[in-house]
Specification:
Blueprint: E1 6-14, E2 17-22, E3 25-33, H1 36-45, E4 50-55, H2 56-61, H3 67-76, E5 80-84, H4 90-98, E6 103-106, H5 108-112, H6 114-124, E7 128-135, E8 138-141, E9 146-151, H7 152-162, E10 166-171, H8 183-192, E11 196-200, H9 206-218, E12 222-227, H10 229-233, H11 239-260
Parallel strand pairs: 1-4, 1-12, 4-5, 5-6, 6-7, 7-10, 10-11, 11-12
Antiparallel strand pairs: 1-2, 2-3, 7-8, 8-9
Helix pairs in contact: 1-3, 9-11
Length: 261
């Protein structure tokens, strides 16, 4: 577990471009850059130690479509990278890790294929995260196109029991909305498991980072937070600002308390 909240800038890929979706809706897409490598290098230049890269085409199709772009980023940006979207086999996981990817994120396949999960955990446990994408507390799959009858907390318990060491929790309704994270939902997952959890969805500025840092004080297994739309659209908030907020959140927290008095 990291002492400080880790900031994961998101790079979502469609057709080789950096994009963002609203609430996971493929019909509500905004293009941000035709050069994903330049975007990755920019976030590194601002101090990022990790990148969160998602192949959205892969998540929808069931097989990675932007793997050449991802390999290019891994080969040219010297920071840790976690990758998800369309990863459906041990062979693909090995290919990604061999290409320099530090952590591979599994979603739909983790729900549906117990045999795969057993093999993955046996071979690559330290390099695997499972994504828990929830709609009103229930797990969604296939690029958020389907909602299951599985509770997010039950799925988290199951993954921990199987030997998974990292979870990524996303509230679909918060993603891309710039309305703040689902703190209660994140807290429920953190209370349910002892393994590391990365929060995703809704970060809109420094005040949300402060709130997540406070949550980490209560639950040290909150490893980090993924931020996407905010760092692409809000001029006053970027990766550097997010990292500064993590460093100074105790001062900012006390300042907010004094201002409220």
């Amino acid at each position: 577990m990291s002492e400080n909240l880790i900031i994961f800038p998101a790079i979502d890929l469609m057709d080789g471009k950096v994009v963002r979706l609203k609430q996971g809706n493929f019909d509500k897409k905004t293009d941000y850059s035709d050069d994903p490598l330049a975007v990755a290098q920019h976030w590194k230049s601002q101090g990022a130690l990790w990148l969160h890269v998602v192949d959205l085409d892969g998540a929808k199709a069931g097989d990675m479509k932007n793997i050449d772009v991802i390999k290019k980023i891994a080969g040219n940006v010297d920071i840790a990278i976690q990758v998800g979207g369309g990863v459906r086999s041990v062979e693909r996981i090995k290919e990604l890790i061999d290409s320099g990817i530090e952590r591979v994120v599994l979603g739909t396949k983790a729900i549906s294929d117990n045999d795969l999960m057993k093999e993955v955990i046996k071979k690559y446990a330290d390099h695997i995260a499972v994504s828990i994408d929830c709609s009103q507390g229930m797990v969604a799959q296939r690029g958020w196109l389907e909602t299951t009858k599985i509770k997010g907390t039950d799925f988290a318990n199951e993954m921990e029991a199987q030997g998974i060491k990292y979870l990524i929790y996303t509230d679909i309704h918060k993603d891309g909305m710039l309305q703040g994270p689902n703190i209660n939902g994140i807290r429920e997952i953190l209370k349910t498991v002892a393994i590391d959890v990365i929060a995703s969805g809704g970060v809109s500025g420094s005040h949300d980072i402060v709130e997540l840092c406070i949550l980490k004080e209560q639950h040290p297994n909150l490893l980090g937070a993924i931020t996407g739309k905010a760092i692409y659209e809000l001029q006053y908030f970027d990766v550097q600002k997010a990292l500064e907020t993590v460093k100074n959140y105790k001062f900012l927290k006390n300042k907010d308390i004094k201002d409220a008095q």
